[in-house]
Amino acid sequence: MTRNTPRDGTPRDGPAVERLTVSVYRIPTDLPGGDATLTWDATTLVLVEVTAAGVTGLGYTYGSPATAAVVEQTLSDRVVGQDAFDVPAANDRMSRALRNAGRPGTAAGVGLRGRHRPVGPETPARPGRAGCGPSPPCTPC
Fold first, then answer.
1. What is the spatial distance between Cα 107 and Cα 113, in angstroms, rounded to a whole number?
2. What is the CA radius of gyration of the chain?
């Protein structure tokens, strides 16, 4: 572990988040899906890869491709440079950043749900299979 000091000046013991990479995938469904109001033949997965100390983990959610812009433009500055292990502090910073940006809507998708799904190097990220099952390959949007 490295010792770093986040922007708030509080020393932490975990490695600093080095970068976020955001990708959007359109995942076709095996069969058309639907409910009483809508039908669909694909879903959209927003994948966020977070790197700290040379290790990359991921978080994902299903939602609009606009969610990727929220991560890049609103949330990344609240996470990059911060302690990778201090998830409660990251959650607080992201929640505050989204307060006036539509926290209950699109912004909440990846910002507050997606970050809960870390994956270490022993479980490599496989966006082509996340949620796809035997369906055709996922395609980047």
1. 10
2. 16
Residue 127 lies in a domain: yes
Residue 47's domain is classified under what CATH number? 3.30.390.10
DSSP character at residue 4: B
Neighbours of 119 (CB within 10 A): 17
Instruction: Give 138's contacts (C-beta < 8 A, 6+ positions apart).
Output: 25, 26, 27, 28, 45, 127, 128, 130, 132
Give strand ranges (E) for the chain. 17-34, 39-52, 55-62, 139-140
pLDDT tens for 67-124 read 899 999 989 999 999 999 998 998 899 888 888 776 565 555 544 444 444 434 333 3
Contacts of 126 (CB under 8 A, 6+ apart): none
Give Cα 81 to chain centroid, integer Å: 16
Count of domains observed in the chain: 1
